[in-house]
Amino acid sequence: MSNLPTDLKYATSHEWVKQEPNNLIRVGITDFAQQELGDLVFVELPLIGRNVIAQEQCAVVESVKTASDLFSPVSGEVVEVNASVIDSPESVNEDPYGAWLFCIKAHTPTELDNLLDAADYQALIDQ
């Protein structure tokens, strides 16, 4: 069983989401995703100022096994990226819920209602 904080929301594409004040949405990959990928060796993050729509491919993580696209869980503007994960991609493996990847200023915060809670995400990965 993966480590799943209950205060987060989850996308079926294995991103986690933390809602913060002022419609700021912090995004990372789940513990399950990093376990499946293996040791991360490269992270490509979206450019600050980029407008994304929900479920749009916007970032990439690469491991020793494979590369995987990451998708925006909500529509909005990328307002911050975590540059430290570019220099140390292994930090995502070490602490997937601490090593966030990017933040989006959500245009439509109600899109968060389309995401899974921890119990529903656990059911998804148990299939």
Unreliable spans are: none
Any idea what the shape is? globular
Cα-based radius of gyration, to the nearest Å: 13 Å
Cα(first) to Cα(last) distance is: 12 Å
Q: Which strands sit side by side, in order, in the main sheet?
A: 1-2-3-9-8-5
Number of helices: 4
Question: What percent of residues adopt helix (DSSP H or I)?
Answer: 10-25%
Q: Report mean pLDDT, rounded to a whole number.
A: 95
CATH architecture annotation name: Beta Barrel
Task: Let me know the number of strands.
Answer: 9
Per CATH, the class reads: Mainly Beta
List keywords for this structure.
127 residues; alpha+beta; OB fold (Dihydrolipoamide Acetyltransferase, E2P); 6-stranded antiparallel sheet; 3-stranded antiparallel sheet; 20% helix; globular
Description:
The longest helix is centred in the last third of the chain and has 9 residues, at 118-126. 20% of the residues lie in helices and 35% in strands. The protein contains four helices and nine strands; from the N terminus they run E-E-E-H-E-E-E-E-E-H-H-E-H. It is globular, with a radius of gyration of 13 Å. It has 127 residues and is of the alpha+beta class. The protein has one domain: RNA polymerase II/Efflux pump adaptor protein, barrel-sandwich hybrid domain (OB fold (Dihydrolipoamide Acetyltransferase, E2P), Beta Barrel), CATH 2.40.50.100. The strands form two sheets. The protein has a six-stranded antiparallel sheet with strand order 1-2-3-9-8-5. Strands 4-6-7 form a three-stranded antiparallel sheet.
